[in-house]
Amino acid sequence: MYYSITGKVIKKEENYAVIDNNGIAYMIMTSLNSLSSMTESVVTMYTYLNVREDAVELFGFTTIEEKNTFLKLISVSGVGPKAALAILSASTPAKFAVAVITNDVKVITKAKGVGPKLAQRIILELKDKMKNEDLDIDISAAEPEVMMSNCRAEALSALVVLGYSRADAKKAVEKTEDGLSTEEIIKKALAMLM
User: Fold this and answer.
1) Which range (9-13, 93-97, 111-115, 186-190) has the least confidence?
2) Is residue 2 predicted with pLDDT exceeding 50?
3) Distances from the Cα of 66 to the Cαs of 7, 53, 102, in angstroms?
4) Do 162 and 69 contact (CB within 8 A), yes or no?
5) What's the pTM?
6) Mean pLDDT on 54-75
7) How far apart are CA 84 and CA 71, in angstroms?
8) How far is CA 8 from the centre of its chain?
9) Would you state the pLDDT for residue 128?
10) Under 8 Å CB-to-CB from 163, ≥6 apart: which residues?
11) Residues 6+ apart with CB under 8 A from 116
């Protein structure tokens, strides 16, 4: 229903922010990462409206990547909006994508209330979705893949998970210097893509 809300930050708490837009104050549940990035008095939050029998809640994020990761998380059976927020508060979308690709349960279980079984389910379900997304890409039309290190390949996959096209992500990853960790490659590639 709401794609985004832009307004003045009038209050910040541990798990939500209040944004005033033309005299209407919206209480928006958000991650610690989004809260810490609210350095300006006026912000844009990319939102998701969650309607349940007993509540209507508005969730929002300062980046579209974080919102997209949130939407992927809540598509996993057993992961509700609050668990997804906890995961995004414990790690960035890039770190989360790397954790899924590398089967790193520890990164996901750092989130409050997320145990190993749920983390494994998240990895299993999101890996399958990523593989299905990769099937849509016409590999025959693409130029032959250059041999990439494991870190570069993982970074490329993480960027695709975050919603970047494989071609754009590949160009950005190839521009990074050699010897970097997967996380460092993702950070540098994200900087180039933005």
Assistant:
1) 93-97
2) yes
3) 19, 26, 19
4) yes
5) 0.68
6) 92
7) 9
8) 24
9) 65
10) 64, 65, 68
11) 105, 109
Backbone angles phi, psi at 72, to 5 degrees: -65, -40
- The crossing angle, in degrees rounded to 10, of helices 93-101 and 64-74 is 40
Query: Which helix or strand (DSSP H or E) is residue 193 part of?
Result: helix 182-193
Residue 144 has pLDDT above 50, yes or no: no
What single DSSP character describes residue 47? E
Q: Give the pLDDT band (50/70/90) at residue 146.
A: very low
d(CA 153, CA 138): 18
Mean pLDDT, residues 114-134: 77
E-assigned strand segments in the chain: 4-12, 16-21, 24-29, 42-51, 56-61
CA gap 117, 110 in Å, rounded: 13
What type of residue is 18? V
* 3-state DSSP assignment of residue 105: helix
Q: Coil, strand or helix: which one is 179?
A: coil
